[in-house]
Specification:
With 68 residues, this protein is of the alpha+beta class. The chain has two helices and four strands, in the order βαββαβ. It has a four-stranded antiparallel β-sheet, with helices on one face.
């Protein structure tokens, strides 16, 4: 499971990651929790970070991705 912290664009982040194999499980304030598509959560966290960075809104977004 990974955690994405972001104050803005949460709906867009959820849509982006869900279209790439992640499953949104819950939201707590600024925290978005996702189940990963594989058993390697560290690699999936890096993939999620790159997906967000490469999105049209990602360059100006302050966020972080962590393994839970």
């Amino acid at each position: 499971m990974i955690l994405v912290n972001s104050a803005m664009m949460q709906k867009e982040i959820i849509e982006l990651l869900e279209t790439n194999g992640f499953k949104h499980t819950k939201k707590q304030g600024l925290k978005l929790y996702f189940e990963t598509p594989s058993d390697d959560a560290t690699t999936d966290a890096a993939t999620a970070k790159q997906l967000i960075k490469n999105s049209p809104f990602g360059a100006a977004l302050f966020f972080n991705v962590a393994v839970v």
